[in-house]
Amino acid sequence: MHLDEFDRKIIGALQEDARMPVAQVAERAALSATPVSRRIKRLEDEGVILGYQPVLDPRRLGFELDAYVLINLDGHSDDNISRFERAIHGNPYVIACHAVTGDMDYLVHVIARDVEHLSQITLKTLVRIPGVRDVKSIIVLETIKETRAMPLE
Questions:
Q1: Which of 55, 102, 105, 111 is at 20 to 30 A from 42, Cα to Cα?
Q2: Domain ranges (residues) in the chain
Q3: From the Swiss-Prot or TrEMBL record, what is one GO molecular function term (predicted)?
Q4: Per-residue pLDDT tens for 18-34?
Q5: Could you write out the DSSP letters of every residue in 44-102?
Q6: Of 129, 139, 138, which is closest to residue 72 (Cα–Cα)?
């Protein structure tokens, strides 16, 4: 999809604050509110803008620990993969899961209250998913950069 300068300005403004009033977005894009509203609707309809959600602070919600869990399956049959993916979708502490290249099959982003809670999540749920062969955990010590904003080049 081709994004022109106005689309980029609109998206940039919404990435800063998705609750920004259309009039303010229009001011930033140097357009009037009506064409900005139409452009936002088009960007949503075409799937460029997937949705809007608040950015939450996990620590304020009691999740002090951020970890990545690397997982290998013992086989790549459709049943194994489907079973694994269903289990991951059903786990509220898994906030992202990616199939990856390299030595491991999946990179799973997990939040937990503390190390004991991470141990429970890992040993009582992730390791017990049928078809899981290897699990390695990496605990985040400090987050240097984290953003969902996309570059608008």
A1: 55
A2: 5-45, 58-139
A3: sequence-specific DNA binding
A4: 999 999 999 999 999 99
A5: HHTTSS----PPP-GGGGT--EEEEEEEEES---HHHHHHHHHHHHT-TTEEEEEE-SS
A6: 129
Q: 5-45: what CATH class?
A: mainly alpha
Q: How far is CA 132 from the centre of its chain?
A: 23
Fold held by 58-139: Alpha-Beta Plaits (3.30.70)
Phi, psi of 34 (to 5 degrees): -60, -50
Q: Is the pTM of this model over 0.85?
A: yes
| Separation CA 146–CA 148 (nearest Å) | 7
Task: For residues 78 and 94, give the distance between their C-alpha atoms in angstroms, rounded to a whole number.
Answer: 21
117 sits in which H/E element? helix 115-120
List, for residues 40-73, the tens digit of each pLDDT value: 999 999 999 999 999 999 999 999 999 999 999 9
Sign for the CA dihedral angle at 113, 115, 117, 118 comes to positive
Distances 46 to 7, 10, 42, 116, 146 between C-alpha atoms, Å: 13, 15, 6, 44, 26
Query: Which residue carries 């993969």 as its tokens?
Result: 81
